Amino acid sequence: MVFTWLHAAIIVFFIAGLAFAGGPLLGSLLLAPKARGGDIALPYECGMVPHGASWMRFGINYYVYALLFLAFDVDVLYLFPVAAYYPHAEGLMPVIKVFIFLAVLALGVLYFWRKGVFTWPKRVR
């Protein structure tokens, strides 16, 4: 194997990339002030001093809503490339595919609705 300028450039850029990524990490470890004790172990609550039991349990409903939002939000993102392609499409087939996609999303919403996921409980324990 012959060592060429292309190989040298790849090695130089690889080392530069590692230095670019690892330099700030190493610099922060070496140069950043070390804080111990005091308020550093307290949970962050908008800059206010927490009172009462700061480590409390949250209901799973918050996480379920967040996951459902992410799932349907990512699915809706698939519609943007379709909308960009639509002016170049020929025939009715792309419209039918979009309606099938939206029907599957609607069936997912109906399924979660029937399971009672969208009903908020009276009290979170």
TrEMBL record:
| GO cellular component term, pick one | plasma membrane
Q: Give the domain of life.
A: Bacteria
Q: What is its EC number?
A: 7.1.1.-
Gene3D superfamilies tied to this protein: NADH:ubiquinone/plastoquinone oxidoreductase, chain 3
Annotated membrane topology is: Multi-pass membrane protein
Coiled-coil positions: none
Q: Where are the transmembrane segments?
A: 6-32, 62-86, 92-113
Its subcellular locations are:
Cell membrane; Membrane
- Catalytic activity of the protein: a quinone + NADH + 5 H(+)(in) = a quinol + NAD(+) + 4 H(+)(out)
Question: Which top EC class applies here?
Answer: translocase
Care to name a GO molecular-function term for this sequence? quinone binding
One Pfam annotation reads: Oxidored_q4
Q: Which UniProt keywords apply?
A: Membrane, NAD, Oxidoreductase, Quinone, Transmembrane, Transmembrane helix, Transport
Q: What is its main location?
A: membrane
InterPro entries reported in the protein's UniProt record: NADH_UbQ/plastoQ_OxRdtase_su3, NDAH_ubi_oxred_su3_sf
PANTHER family, from UniProt? Answer: NADH-UBIQUINONE OXIDOREDUCTASE CHAIN 3
Q: What does this protein do?
A: NDH-1 shuttles electrons from NADH, via FMN and iron-sulfur (Fe-S) centers, to quinones in the respiratory chain.
Which protein family is it in?
A: Belongs to the complex I subunit 3 family.
Q: This protein is called what?
A: NADH-quinone oxidoreductase subunit
High-level lineage? Bacteria, Pseudomonadati, Thermodesulfobacteriota, Desulfovibrionia, Desulfovibrionales
